Amino acid sequence: MYRRIEQLAVATLFALALLVQHSGATEQPRTCYTCEGINCQRTSIMKEQKCLNSLDYCVTVFSKFTVVQKGCSLEVPIELRRRCDANTVECHKCNTDRCNNLGQPNYLCLQCDSSNDANCANNVSALTPMRCSSPTATNSYCFVRYDGGVTTRGCSTTLADQRSCYANANCLLCSPGDFKGCNSVDFQPGTRALRL
Ligand SMILES: *[C@@H]1O[C@H](CO)[C@@H](O)[C@H](O)[C@H]1NC(C)=O
Asked: Disulfide check for 151: which of 49, 86, 114, 190 has CB 3.0–4.6 Å away?
């Protein structure tokens, strides 16, 4: 009930702001990816919703690095939306259609392939870790993989990718929470240097 009243109040404020700023201009409501709880870890389900309020925007709410909710901000439960209202790293807000597809702002990995950037193999200090897409796995990892003389570094965001890397002695997973761009490390191919 309280939530409903708050949403109405926010919607009214938005509506007033719209009147003042656009004096009647028609704004298309956003379309956002949406998921809730454990369904955010199901790769086969990629649902979308059209926001009820034409001035609403998209969010992804995280618990540490794990996605716990996606959707239109006003349709996210208030206790989760607090992470967005307080501008914490556990919320990604954005304002274009289907934009809520990124990982937590600290989920940063080097993303390169030595077949088109030689620095990826032997000069990683020249590269900047970049934000990953939103994970469907509970854990978020970066990886380094050697494959027939080619070095690949990137984000490991799905359980299938993480399992296949873990099963491959030429592939190493590391946690982005430990330090930025953890996959700048190298190891002797065939002898994965670190274990999870
Ligand atoms: C490493 O990258 C930097 C910046 O791009 C470049 O100036 C330097 O020459 C590179 N070093 C090697 C050994 O390739």
From this structure: 114
